[in-house]
Amino acid sequence: MSRRSTLSVVLALATALAFAMPALAGGVVISLDDVPPDAQAGVPFTIGFTVFSAHDGSPQSGLEPIVTATDPASGEKMTVAAEPEGADGHYVATLTLPTEGEWRWEIQPLGKYAENYPASVMTPIKVRAAAAQPAAPAAPEIQVSPTATLWPALAAIVAVAAAASIALVRARRRATVRP
């Protein structure tokens, strides 16, 4: 083979590989089911999403996506693993953001060659303060009639008077019996 034809073959292979690399690279697109709900601090909510191949648009099942939320004000960060649910490529994650504020969040598709895919950064979630806990119900008010407290007092007075009368009668009998 001549030097010129060898160079042509090498150049053709390099060109073919250069055009093949983007097709192999692929990538993913994440589509949210809905806009995240009106979140409240300390109250769990669920986010659903589908992961599609950026190359051919097919749903990507078999991944292990994680959802990471960060509070920029405090630096607090939480990570939740998403679980497959329903159709191919569909996942759900339940988050409980502990404090109010604007939380930034992202979805990172992991597994099945996806480790090098960049995380998809989403629109921040506004988390409102936890609702005040309702006051404990007051103890039921007990209605006491005025005579209800009078009866035990009257019974005590009668018992004391009866005991005193018995003691007095015995004392008189003893005094009269003695010679």
What is the structure about, briefly put?
The protein has about 180 residues and is an alpha+beta fold. It is built from two helices and ten strands, in the order αββββββββββα.
Secondary-structure blueprint of this entry?
Blueprint: H1 3-25, E1 28-32, E2 39-40, E3 45-53, E4 66-70, E5 77-81, E6 83-84, E7 90-95, E8 101-108, E9 120-121, E10 125-128, H2 146-177
Parallel strand pairs: 2-10
Antiparallel strand pairs: 1-3, 3-7, 4-5, 4-8, 6-7, 8-9, 8-10
Which architecture of the largest domain does the CATH hierarchy give at level 2?
Sandwich
**Weakly predicted, low-confidence segments:** 10-25
Tally of extended strands?
A: 10
Count of helical regions: 2
Name the CATH superfamily classification of the largest domain.
Immunoglobulins
Structural class label:
alpha+beta
How many distinct domains?
2
Terminal CA distance reads 160 Å
CATH topology description of the largest domain: Immunoglobulin-like
In round numbers, the mean pLDDT is 75
Shape: rod-shaped
